[in-house]
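Protein in question passed on here:
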Amino acid sequence: MEYRQLGRSGLRVSLHTLGTMTFGGEGFCAMAGKTALDEARRIIDVAVDHGVNMIDTSNIYSVGRSEEIVGAALKDKSQQILVGTKVRFSMGQGPNEGGLSRFHIIEQCEASLRRLQRDRIDLYFLHEWDGQTPVEEMMEALDTLVKQGKVRYIGCSNFSGWHIMKALMAADRHNWQRFCCQQIHYTIEAREAEHELMPIAIDQGVGIQVWSPIAGGLLSGKFRRNAPPPQLSRHTAGWGEPPIADEDRLYRIIDALVAVGEARGVSAAQVALAWLAGRPGVASIIVGARTEAQLKDNLAAARLELTPEERKRLDDVSLRPLPYPYWHQCNTAADRLGPADLALHAPHLANRKPRM
């Protein structure tokens, strides 16, 4: 297993993080899976045996049950196994049981610690933006938790670029803890994160941890054009994430993943994960599975390194046209682009036609 630095922190995390949305199987999470404690223990053991040193969960997964299962499964295991969890979504019907107020952040941190049976959270994420709470209140609450020893590192998830920069500005102004990580949806099919979030990762030292890297199974190779979908899938149960605007493009990407995988003797899922591992700013990729076999297949992607030719083939089938102002930058500013800019522009510049 490869270990990478998490953003501008000193923390090293495994290339693959174990995701636990399937643990518990209550509420909306039941569409992802219904892993009980005994099977969760086995899945965690397999992940750790493969070198995974981080587990990802959230208070909202099965309304706390996922955290409880993680806590029970990790009891008496090495404290070197890192745990990340999240706060933002409503955990009850009261007016202060959701959002990112100081009240809710601190209350839910303490509740998560109880469920996890731990004295600290290694990586605590703001799970989604809250446009009704001052960003200074969010960042000060997180800073307080770090100073109290309840949280070691902080991050955000599903923030836009300007949300992240506003939060970092507040942290820098008041000398509070900064985000060292952003947890985002990013796949070879969904490349919107390259416009702002990936350059921020390079420029601001906010490492990328990817959620749903094979789009909930869509990029696994099991979904094929003009073929019935697999029966055990969250997408056939009405999951709805990620939204697919161009189904023909999706299947062109799947065809390319399958072709590269067949040539290398690996699954399409491994190819999709290996493509992500080679993208700028990516520190860790969250992989989950309904079964041990699925998990082992995903973890095997850590050993797969794509050739430049394979990467170009996958880029050519998945690149989208640049929106403004990026197409203008690509056409006129290529001589003055920095490393953060090139995280977005490099594959487009490689395909750029000479100007008349």
